[in-house]
Amino acid sequence: MLRVRSVGVALGGVLLATVAQADVRPYAERVQEKILPNGLKVLVLEEHKAPTAVVQVWYRVGSRNEELGKTGLSHLLEHLMFKGTEKVGPEEYSKIIQRNGGNENAFTGNDSTTYFASMASDRIGTVIDLEADRMQHLKFDRALFTPEHQVVMEERRLRTDNNPVSALFEMLQSTAYAAHPYQWPVIGWMDDLRQATWDDAMMYYRTYYVPNNAFVVCVGDVTAADIFAKVEAAFGAYPAGAVPPPVRAVEPPQQGERRTQLKREAQLPFVVTAYHVPTVQSPDALALEVLAAVLSGGESARLHRRLVYERRLAREVGASFDLTSVDPSLFALYAQPLPGKGAAALERELLAEIAGLQRTPVPPAELTKAKNGLEARFVLGQDSNFYQGMVLGQYENTGDWRRIDTYVPGVRAVTAEDLRRVAAQYLTASNRTVATLDPVLPAAGRPLPPESIPQGGVH
Length: 459
Description:
Elements: H1 2-21, H2 27-30, E1 31-35, E2 41-46, E3 52-59, H3 73-80, H4 92-99, E4 103-108, E5 113-120, H5 124-136, H6 142-161, H7 164-176, H8 190-195, H9 198-208, E6 214-220, H10 224-235, E7 258-265, E8 270-277, H11 285-296, H12 302-310, E9 314-321, E10 329-337, H13 343-359, H14 364-380, H15 385-397, H16 407-413, H17 416-426, E11 432-440
Parallel strand pairs: 2-6, 7-11
Antiparallel strand pairs: 1-2, 3-5, 3-6, 4-5, 8-10, 8-11, 9-10
């Protein structure tokens, strides 16, 4: 407890020093918003600390919008968006950004697809023009589709098929969800990827890449008036598209424990226990956020301290919770035993930790440390244009970016009784899915595959 208390006080001190230097006004007072006639929303946050800026274009489409037989299209299209337009040749987008001293990338999730670039703020109009061009004028022939199609399949082989821990998390999600599209992976099932066609990708593009299904976020050394003018000049002439089909699937309440086992060539076992929980739209969301931090907010947090340091059962342990998931997601605890230790023993320890949280309030020092850590991460992140853009985008994608301003006050208001209550309400046996990796020996001469936890944990 001395270690916990000292870390909590230290984080609090760092936080207070940082707050003294940061702009602590609510986002609602700092962010300016404009909606174009075609439905495209633009959010601008002026940050004049350095002559740089980031532009992010968010499309409200991810694996959640797909269907069985056509999974993976959101991620495949993300790759294809770099294959050129009527004006910009294949891969030229990245080269133009680099020539202007910037960097760019993109990512696909369950709920959105995001493209972003950072560079000197006096050249940020280049990004806006390029993004507007490929929103409406993506153009590539079937000869370019085929190699990129193969790249995505190879990415799946490397990241999931050849990684037993990633494969286990994928199996966990497909077991935990019975009716909702969160059951399939963002990268898609391999057979669906094999069957994907140029026509599938272009139809998906025309359906979801429309102004009224997107929003632009810009953070940095800019003026809102200038960005609004640039975005309107670049995107304003595009007509609104048909409203994309809504996701109507609702996951029914789970009514009993589900278990799944993966037998794969692996170095060590692995176990994950996951529970259906609400996200940011729920008044319980921030209590769950703090609970995850109590369990897994650094090496001095409860799981790592007890199972790695004190009992020497695990080599890796943690918890994950996706606060800004559009639909209810999973609260997961995971662990990998040390050599010679078993997954069953670790599962019992994880369940015992949950039972302890349900019975006994978290001590004040431990609660303070977890809350300080979350608040410090939030405030320190405001030094980054990209981080602030991400936070704006994630909250906007869930319905309203202004909800960001409830985060710090909400975290501060969480009590030990709130943690006990949400643990008792959601982390129950009937709401639990357990996935276990059971290693098998490789064929003679074959090396064991690498193992890593997928970025982002579970959804």
